[in-house]
Amino acid sequence: MITVERVIDKRHNGMEMIVPDNEGLSVNDYGRSELNEIIRQDGEQYSNYRMKRFFEYKGLSFPAWRKISLENLNLLPLKNAISSTINVKGEKNIKPIKEMNQTERFIFDRLDFEGSDRKILLLADVFHSDGYIFKHFEAPLTISTDSTSSRPSYATNLFVIPENTNAKIHIKNYSEGLLVMNNRFLLQNGSSLDILVSGFTDKHAFSFLNNFYMLEDEAELRVTDFNISDGIVAPHHFVLNKGERSKVEIMPSFLVVNRGKIDSQYVIKLSGREAHGIINGMGVLKDFTEAIFRPSVHIASEAKGVVGKEKSSMIMLSENSRAQTIPGLFVTENDVEASHAATVGTVDDNHLYYLMSRGYRLNEAKRMIIIAMFNMFFNRIEASFKEECERMKNDIARRVS
Amino acid sequence: MSNVFVDNKSFNFKHEAKYSAKSEPGINKGLIEEISSYKNEPESMLKQRLNSLEVFKNTKKPGFGVDTSNLDIQKIIPYLRPEANKGNNWDDVPYEIKDTFERLGIPESERKALAGVGAQYDSEVVYQNIKKELENIGVVFLDMETAVKEFPELVRKYFMKLVPANDHKYAALHGAIWSGGSFVYVPENTEVSLPLQAYFRMNAQGTGQFEHTLIVADRGSKVHFIEGCSAPRYNIHNLHAGMVEIFVKEGASVRYSTIQNWSKNTFNLNTKRAIVEENGTMEWISGSLGSEKTMLYPATILKGKRAHAYHLGVTYAGDGQHMDTGSKVIHLGSETTSNIDVRSISVNGGWAFYRGLLKIAKGAKRSRSSVKCTSLMVDNDSRADTYPVIEVENNLSDIGHEAKIGRIGEEELFYIMSRGLTEDDAKAMIVRGFIEPITKELPLEYAVELNRLINIEMDSSIG
User: Fold this and answer.
1) Strand pairing category for B182-186 and B212-217
2) Which of A65, A61, A55, A57 is nearest to A26 (CA)?
């Protein structure tokens, strides 16, 4: 039986909280005929994996999200789907998901989760055109995935970071159409993973990323999630710190431009003793944009000595933008440190004053401050992803004008 | 094993009061017509009640908060009229009822520290009085039924205009079946120097209380209103679905203080909302201690320029209690400010959930807000959650939010115990310190009462 890891634990000591129903959205959906087309070549394990999820998928509706509307979501023909490009050394430990064996199937099932929405997660789990199982690879691994206005991209990957090994991964998504990517990570005892996700979502495009990480004892994870969006993007990162003394730091950042919208969710569930989880995010909104930032830290009962912290700042550069932040803390153990801090506002007046007193005009001063904020952010990961950081810095400098 | 508890003993007593009318459980059109007829209401109020009933029937329960699946409205007795004539002399109140309020300390408080008192027993107000000098300068403090008849224009203008029946299911229920409550009108540039108080007592088992409080503070006026509530404990559910609407006019200031101590068989599904005009100030000071399940989010709409809101609250979630509380502030006017400081204590397996909303609308330029949530978990069988929603629609405002959840610090305990206190006393002192920002905002008598309520008793080892 598959246990789906949910974001919210709705029960406590016989009491229950009510959460909103998912109001369904009518979308011209894929069905059995599309599934039959793509499972012809599947092995037994893989076919079972898809079929089981397909039955759940059919019972669900796409979400009628209020803030980020999926009204214009169009599921394009699967025959045109685009595959990811992989750039990695040590390819012998990488194999297509179609070749999954029973053990790998077990890991997939163990790493099942809700995603930003279960229906969207299952869309890629069932109808993916490609996917890989990565067991051990020499750094760095880069996976690039594109979608175009006529060609969707659905991908599902599994990464196993073996005991006491280190890995670096860069996931690069560029979406001009519909892109849904699910990644599941198992960090075994004492392993570490440094991952950078960079997403570029174009006008009218939809991009959904669902990443789930399970950390065993003393595993360490650093996630840097960077998004530039002119379309609709919904990154979801869910970290389950099951292991004792496991550590995670999530650093989200985004720049939303034109009429772009982002609904980002970062979840850390700490259940291992002395585990640490930190979310430290920032975002900038321009033009007619909308951003929702939802970090949450959940601390399970008996997770003693745990530290869970969230911090975020959102900068609004336009009077026509809208920002929403929902920093959640859910705590059922008292021997913990749990806190969050959030700010929403515009560029700091003191910083502006300093630069303007040195002869810079208002807009130029604002631009410099924003670029400096992003640069400070990228400097923290530059040692691991130097080339990509330079590229992102240049991209930001070009777009913040 | 910890045993930090709210002392309910002084509230958990029952009287066999006499009633002149007791409805059957459940609500229906006939009952509403009967209540309206008894209260001799104008046709417009009956119409409003019946419209609310239709909304109630056609509205789903809120899709968030506590589980109310074991609350069957059709088993709740919605109307219970005590056999007492409404008056302004305690000696005219029947002995059983008077004794109840004596034991709750209401007449004594009235003599010492209040400008006026309203006392409601189940569905009707049995005592209402205001100091003569305030009455002489035009301050109105009446039970709601009398206000409907004596101030029809004001009631028509304000009653359920801030929280209409279609706001949510329990607002609709309230609109259909409301009974009792207070009406306060403070004239322009008038300050009511001592607080007014309403006390709501639910005495009978399986009943509902649906009082309506309406406060209009005219331009430049100032008033402090205190609400207290309690009930004896029964084995079947009681329901409280009251409503508070407050209109703070230009430059006026209203403070609304509550000490809620319903018994642990009560569903407390209350609605409180204020709207503030230019330069006005609204302050909510709340202590939510009782009930089995509570959903309560005092809300302030800052409509006028430079209007200000201050929300200060403490929620206590003990054994079997699920408290879903919070604050809502909506900034509409420019240069508006708000300050929210909410605290919770979770103990003996209780669940305190903070659900907040702070919204800065597009027109609320140069607004500022600070939101602070702090939760104290006294043991590791309890749960504390914070879920604030912060929504900003303009780029000229500044919002800061911080939250912290933790336990009683060992260093603090050690420090206090090194001064000769026992561990239990040290913990009691820390908890009292934790809620001190709330107690120091209350009049002395109420601060003492709140501290008395939160008694702390513990044996050896906590956390």
Assistant:
1) parallel
2) A61
What pLDDT score does B382 carry? 95
pLDDT of residue B398: 94
**C-alpha distance from B436 to closest chain A C-alpha (Å):** 21
* Per-run averaged pLDDT (10 residues), chain A, 401 residues: 86 95 89 88 84 94 90 89 76 83 92 96 93 81 88 94 94 94 97 95 94 98 96 97 98 96 97 97 96 97 95 94 96 94 93 95 93 89 90 89 72
The CA distance from B462 to B425, in Å, is 13
Find the CB nearest A339 among B378, B397, B403.
Answer: B403
Cβ of B404 and A336 within 8 Å? no
Q: Which of A12, A338, A345 sits opposite B397 (nearest CB)?
A: A345
Burial B93-115 (b: 16+ CB within 10 A, else e): bbebbbebbeebbbbebbeeebb
Q: Where are the domains of chain A?
A: 24-346, 348-401
Q: Is B135 on the interface with A (CB under 8 A)?
A: no
Query: Is the Cβ pair B377, A346 closer than 8 Å?
Result: no
With CB atoms and an 8 Å threshold, state whether A339 touches B64.
no
| Concatenated DSSP letters of B91-138 | GGS-HHHHHHHHHTTHHHHHHHH-SEEEEEETTEEEEEEE-HHHHHTT
CA B24, B27, B33, B38 dihedral sign is positive
What residues of B are in contact with residue A333 (Cβ under 8 Å)?
377, 380
Does A138 contact chain B (CB < 8 Å)? no
pLDDT attached to residue A308: 97
Rounded distance between C-alpha atoms, residue A369 and residue A363, angstroms: 10
* Burial degree of A321 (CB within 10 A; 0-12, 13-18, 19+): buried
- Residues B268 and B261: their CA atoms lie apart, in Å, by 10
Contact A116, A210 (CB under 8 A): yes
| Rounded Cα–Cα distance for residues B290 and B264 (Å) | 6
Distance CA B326, CA B299 (A): 9
Chain B CA closest to residue A18: B64
Q: Give the one of A301, A324, A333 whose C-beta lies nearest to B390's C-beta.
A: A324
- Please tell me the distance from the alpha carbon of residue B433 to that of residue B345, in angstroms, as a whole number: 12
Closest-CA residue of chain B to A290: B393
Best of A322, A331, A363, A370 to substitute, by most chain B Cβ atoms within 10 angstroms, is A331
User: Which pLDDT belongs to residue A139?
Assistant: 65
ipTM over 0.90: yes
Q: Which of residues 252-311 of B touch A (CB under 8 A)?
A: 293
Interface probe with A: pick from B346, B390, B461, most Cβ of A within 10 Å: B390
What radius of gyration, in Å, describes the C-alpha atoms of chain A?
21
Q: Are B302 and B332 in contact (CB under 8 A)?
A: yes
Q: How far apart are CA B253 and CA B280, in angstroms?
A: 6
Task: For residues B95 and B101, give the distance between their C-alpha atoms in angstroms, rounded to a whole number.
Answer: 10
Question: How far is B55 from chain A, CA to nearest CA, in Å?
Answer: 20
Are the Cβ atoms of B399 and A343 closer than 8 angstroms?
Answer: yes
A347, A355 Cβ separation under 8 angstroms: no
pLDDT of residue B108: 84
**Alpha helix (H) ranges present in B58-105?**
95-103
Question: Six-digit token pair at A278?
Answer: 């930190």
Whether B392 sits inside 8 A of A335 (CB atoms) is no
Task: Kindly determine whether residue A17 and residue B64, on different chains, have CB atoms separated by under 8 Å.
Answer: yes
Cα angle value B295/B200/B61 (rounded, 5°): 25
How much is the pLDDT for A79? 86
- The separation between CA A151 and the C-alpha centre of its own chain, rounded to angstroms, equals 22
Kindly give the parts of chain B with pLDDT less than 50: 1-6, 456-463
Enter the pTM of the model. Answer: 0.93
- Which residue of chain A comes nearest to B351, CA vs CA? A12
